[in-house]
Amino acid sequence: MLQPARLKFRKLQKGRIRGRATRGCHLAFGDIGLQALESGLVNTRQLEAGRLAMARFMKKGGKIFIRVFPDKPITKKPAETRMGKGKGQVEGWGAVVKRGRVLFEVEGLDQTSAHEALKLAADKMSVLTRIVTRERFSEV
User: Fold this and answer.
1) Which of 38, 50, 115, 138 is a plausible cystine mate for 121, CB 3.0–4.6 Å?
2) What is the reported pTM?
3) CA distance 129 to 12
4) pLDDT tens, 22-43?
5) What values do phi and psi take at 116, rounded to 5?
6) Do 45 and 95 contact (CB within 8 A), yes or no?
7) Cα dist. 6→44, 71, 84, 101, 116 in Å?
């Protein structure tokens, strides 16, 4: 699964995800892509599940581009632990996704099979998504 090799700080604050994506909101590599319609945190397991679902459906044809990277540590305190005594340990990694961000792109497939592959990946994501093509790009 995806995770960064090094970080300046082990644990980050939760923060808020506000506004709309200004970068990574257009197709750059593929012909058809999966765009987020809401902001949220997509963890590394969801990204990997989406990638695997697409790869299994596509078999050997086409190429998948993952446009987000999970570089934010997600911490969790153990069960039945009292408050205080510091921040919990890093349990996993997440990618901060703003509204309008393209998560996956696919190239080298016909329109219907690419649409079906992206629909399988969309089911695995924790944010609402839509499928976009090069011709159809409206403001989110």
Assistant:
1) 50
2) 0.88
3) 26
4) 999 999 999 999 999 999 999 9
5) -65, -40
6) no
7) 16, 10, 27, 24, 36
Q: Are 91 and 55 in contact (CB under 8 A)?
A: no
Closest CA to 62 of 105, 103, 6: 105
Q: Report residue 97 as tokens.
A: 């996704």
Please enumerate in sequence order all residues whose Cβ is within 8 A of that of 5, keeping only pairs 6 or more positions apart, or say none: none
Tell me the two tokens of residue 66.
Answer: 């993952």
- In this structure, which long-range contacts are made by residues 91-95, counting pairs with CB atoms below 8 Å and at least 24 apart in sequence? 92/43, 92/44, 92/45, 93/1, 93/2, 93/3, 93/4, 93/43, 93/44, 94/41, 94/42, 94/43, 94/44, 94/70, 95/41, 95/42, 95/43, 95/44, 95/47, 95/68, 95/69, 95/70, 95/71
Tell the CATH superfamily of the 32-75+89-133 domain: Ribosomal protein L16/L10 (3.90.1170.10)
Residue 44's nearest CA partner among 15, 21, 69 is 69
125 and 46 Cβ atoms separated by less than 8 Å? yes
